[in-house]
């Protein structure tokens, strides 16, 4: 047996690798099949949309328990009315809380980009309230078309609402700005400081997803890994285990050939993201 402190010194030299999750989009499998499929494919777990109905929710809970897969959840609402939109999302968060599922994070696709800025402030206040009420990691995704649709708009909201936390998917901001955001560093820095989860997809100024991360300008790849690495380092410094979703998606996110099929299989790109993440972090 090692003496006092010896074992802890040895363990501290190797920080836990990030949890790498498999996405559900583009899969033909049912939600209850995805947790085991993710683990079999080498991922630590799966991220998927919260299902409607108690039966589907119960089946998901059983599948997660049986596979020992890590789980993150996504929630949204298609309601056009802002109040109904927020109420529907709150109802889903309440269902998740009552289900007892150990979700790492609940990521919200929240709001619409064209809603009045006052509504975005109201939604931010509600999200902070949900975090306090449910005691969960409830995050708003950086996502075009949503509340945090762009770097400049999100900077304003994050400054005004210091308890608002995010899921970092900067590919959307890159598309909206048609740039690698070199001239919006303050927004990028603040988003990195507030990020508790990463959607790891590599974007470029004309699209949210490169054809293949293995065959693109290395500078673009390195820029994304540098951003993600800052988040990983900060979360580890806070004594927590970082996590990310490998999020290359199917057509139309994936560039398609004349036959309508993806030029590069997104699952290949996601496996590459998984491997690179574990190698680098």
Automatic annotation (TrEMBL):
Residues 1-27 are annotated as: Disordered. This is Sugar phosphate isomerase/epimerase.
């Amino acid at each position: 047996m090692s003496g006092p402190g010896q074992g802890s010194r040895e363990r501290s030299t190797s920080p836990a690798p990030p949890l790498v999750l498999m996405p559900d989009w583009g899969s033909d499998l049912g939600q209850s099949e995805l947790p085991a499929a993710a683990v079999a494919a080498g991922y630590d777990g799966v991220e998927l949309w919260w299902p409607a109905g108690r039966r589907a929710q119960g089946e998901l809970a059983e599948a997660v328990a049986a596979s020992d897969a890590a789980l993150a959840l996504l929630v949204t609402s298609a309601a056009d009315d802002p109040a109904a939109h927020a109420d529907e999302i709150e109802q889903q968060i309440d269902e998740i809380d009552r289900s007892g599922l150990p979700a790492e994070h609940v990521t919200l696709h929240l709001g619409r980009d064209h809603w009045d800025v006052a509504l975005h402030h109201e939604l931010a206040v509600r999200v902070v309230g949900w975090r306090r009420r449910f005691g969960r990691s409830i995050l708003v995704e950086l996502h075009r078309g949503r509340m945090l649709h762009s770097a400049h708009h999100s900077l304003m909201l994050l400054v005004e609402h210091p308890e608002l936390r995010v899921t970092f998917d900067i590919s959307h901001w890159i598309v909206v700005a048609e740039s690698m955001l070199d001239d919006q560093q303050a927004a990028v820095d603040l988003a990195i400081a507030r990020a508790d989860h990463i959607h790891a997809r590599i974007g470029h100024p004309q699209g949210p997803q490169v054809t293949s991360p293995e065959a693109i300008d290395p500078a673009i790849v390195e820029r994304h890994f540098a951003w993600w690495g800052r988040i990983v380092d900060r979360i580890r410094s806070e004594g927590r285990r970082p996590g990310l979703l490998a999020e290359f998606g199917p057509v139309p996110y994936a560039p398609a050939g004349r036959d309508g099929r993806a030029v590069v299989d997104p699952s290949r790109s996601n496996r590459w993201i998984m491997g690179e993440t574990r190698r680098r972090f």
